[in-house]
Specification:
Elements: H1 9-24, H2 34-46, H3 54-71, H4 80-83, E1 90-94, H5 99-110, E2 114-119, H6 122-132, E3 139-144, H7 150-163, E4 169-172, H8 188-197, H9 201-221, H10 223-232, E5 238-243, H11 257-279, E6 284-291, H12 297-300, H13 328-340, E7 348-351, H14 355-359
Parallel strand pairs: 1-2, 1-4, 2-3, 4-5, 5-6, 6-7
Helix pairs in contact: 1-2, 1-3, 2-3, 5-13, 7-9, 9-11
Length: 361
């Protein structure tokens, strides 16, 4: 009579070790802790059946692991600290010295990110570090630079590459706007005088250079560093966030044609970059935030000498459905969502207190 050979403890231990190695490599089984696996493997070694081949027993253990994983709760990964996690991420924010850029810089830094802020005025950047860079879990690091030209962008890239091996988050926030020209007229002649007579070519070209060309140059120049950032963390894809504006998709000019046209171009640039990057299999997400009225140097023409913060009274925008202008916390919630949601790509998120509903897209 044939008597099957019972595997030795050495053989069983080796098989169990291989099984641990194999199942640990599978994402679907990473949710099972060592404490959960160990009893199963111990059972595999000590309570083996004499007539059951080692591989068949290993298959049984694997099936038990899969069953355990399918019934375990995923509560932990749904916690706020896990969902909106930018701790130890490396970010770069252009125009991070005031307004919306400063709101974004603070949000990322206080939540543990190392944030490089780019601006043309060193004094402003240093004020941000002094006022907002202390006693936080992340860092704010100033970088003087100009995003309007290829040479300027290359210098910024060189500096970041000298300090970091990769980048997780790029926020293209730097933007400019010239003064307004009234569209409320009583005749074609007056409209022509206001639009043609009062508008300079430089206004249009400078606005496009900063608001459209700048994000294109920054996004394409930093793409390799961002792609390396994706490789650093399983489940994370680096991201470009272009700060556009509701001015880019409302029908009215708001009395500044050049600015609104440039922001419309920014929104379309965002779509094109997201599409072409994805088509080439590069795992870097590209999204846009279109803010409404937030206090900034652009909307209030001033900021605090100490904090670089701008203020806007609630009464100034009480006609909005939100009955107020945007706040720091509104932008904080927006940037945390856009940067951390791995399923968001090629989109423009409007955060405007309902302005678009009134003005019409």
């Amino acid at each position: 009579m044939f008597v099957p050979k019972v595997p030795s403890n050495v053989t069983l231990t080796r098989c169990a070790s291989r099984l641990i190695r194999d199942v640990s490599r599978q994402d679907s089984l990473r949710c099972i802790s060592t404490a959960t696996r160990q009893p199963l493997f111990q059972n595999y070694i000590t309570t083996r059946r004499p007539f059951m081949p080692a591989q068949q027993r290993a298959n049984q253990i694997s099936n038990q692991l899969r069953q355990s994983c399918s019934t375990m709760s995923n509560n932990a990964e749904l916690q706020q600290s896990s969902i909106f996690n930018v701790k130890d991420k490396i970010a770069l924010v252009t125009g991070g010295g005031s307004g919306i850029g400063l709101m974004i810089t603070q949000t990322l830094a206080v939540n543990g990110a190392k944030v490089y802020i780019v601006g043309r005025t060193e004094e402003k950047l240093e004020k941000v570090v002094e006022a907002h860079g202390k006693d936080i879990s992340g860092q704010i690091i100033p970088v003087v630079g100009d995003v309007q030209t290829k040479d300027g962008v290359q210098k910024i890239l060189n500096e970041i590459e000298s300090k970091e091996k990769y980048l997780d988050i790029l926020v293209n926030n730097a933007g400019i706007a010239y003064g307004k020209t009234s569209t409320k007229v009583e005749s074609a002649e007056e409209f022509s005088k206001n639009m043609f007579g009062e508008t300079s070519e430089k206004e249009w070209l400078d606005t496009y250079q900063t608001n459209v060309v700048g994000p294109f140059l920054m996004g394409t120049a930093f793409l390799p560093l961002l792609a390396k950032g994706t490789e650093q963390t399983h489940g994370w894809s680096s991201t470009i966030v272009n700060i556009s504006s509701i001015s880019g998709h409302v029908r009215i000019s708001q009395d500044h044609f050049s600015y609104n046209a440039s922001k419309g171009a920014t929104i379309h640039l965002n779509k094109m970059l997201a599409t072409e990057i994805a088509k080439n299999g590069i795992k870097v997400r590209v999204n846009s935030i279109a803010p409404g009225v937030f206090p900034s140097e652009m909307t209030t023409q001033e900021s605090s000498d100490k904090t670089q913060k701008s203020e806007m009274p609630k009464e100034k925008k009480e006609g909005l459905p939100a009955q107020r202008p945007g706040k720091d916390t509104d932008m904080a919630q927006s940037i945390m969502f856009v940067t951390t949601c791995q399923y968001l790509n090629g989109q423009t998120i409007t955060v405007d207190g309902g302005y678009s509903m009134q003005a019409g897209n």
